[in-house]
Amino acid sequence: MNANRTLLLNALSKVHGIDVYLTYRCDMRCSHCFVGPRLGQRNLPYPHLGNLLEACAQTGVHEVTYLGGEPTLYPRIDDALRDAWARGLEVRIVSNGMGGLSRLLDRLDPLDGPLHICLSLDGDRDAHDSIRRPGAYEAIQRVAERCHQMGIPLSGITSVSRDNVEQVESIVRDSDRLGFTHLNLHYVSARGFATAETVLSAQEWDEVRRRVTLLTAEVRLPIRFEDTFVPAGRDVRCVVKHESNLMFFPDGKVFHCALFIDVPDGHSFEFTGEDLERASAPTSERCVVQSGAKAGCPVASRVYDDDVIAGIPDLCCNCIYDKTVLKDGLRQADFRGH
Question: Alpha carbon of 295 to those of 158, 230, 237: distances in Å?
């Protein structure tokens, strides 16, 4: 790899870890999926991934997270793991827990390298299977037991919408029973397959926080709760402005923030496989943030319907990467990042 990859190396030097969407292939079509219509057969070319991992090693990036689609369906997922470990990177896989992950575990030696698996959990058996597909809930149970036997740590992620908001307590208890190190509760916005009708209002999201906080007094599980809405006038940190998050997609688009996924030409960079090239469209992350409102998330008006925060003038939209850790019935700490 040529050492003069200025933009790529500069971008990587500002982050602790990166998200790499290895493939748009997926064996599910979940109702809340923010990738949405992009799901299909496209994969990140493996030479591009190799160059990216090498650049990560050069710049001191600590962790790479593999996502999709379903990342375990990536044709060279084994090589993607081995090459990351060979470069001293920790690896996290975000998976739906179905057959692709089971087959990968068959091939893995738990001592091969540092691996963390994050499993998507959306409710009890009926709710989870209705959002994903029949048998998905049982697959999660089996793969969680398998990972514990292999010594692979697990966490969970739940995308909360009207489809499963009444399942939150069940999800927290299941996640605790399954031995997750923590659970991420994510606020679903109307992107990809998700529609405005499924999006919770700010008041409903605050009620979810209240319910979860009470429940953490009964379980040992820490909850990373997305701080989607904050008091108006608060200084809102922006990952685009600070360039503190990087997401690489199979089509070469590189984003700082997932809220821009549905914005036409909303990405900040194109990854050529060798270096980054700046996106120049007026709808790119950089342009929108530079011209956006000073208070609150500058892209919120493009993502959230007006009635999401209607009637609550004292709130504004926060950076979706800011979270609060809820544990033992209390707000424990702020958490930014993965």
Answer: 28, 11, 10
Cα–Cα dist 338/336, whole Å: 7
φ and ψ at residue 316, rounded to 5 degrees: -135, 165
Break the chain down into helix, strand, coil percent, rounded to 5.
35, 20, 45
Give Cβ neighbours of residue 44 (< 8 Å, ≥ 6 apart). Answer: 20, 21, 22, 23, 74, 248, 249, 250
3-class secondary-structure state, position 168: helix
Q: Taking every pair of C-alpha atoms in the chain, what is the biggest distance, in angstroms?
A: 54
pLDDT tens profile 199-239: 898 889 999 999 999 999 999 999 999 998 888 877 788 89
Report whether 180 contacts 202 (CB < 8 A).
no
For the entire predicted model, the pTM comes to 0.93
| Eight-class DSSP state of 193 | T
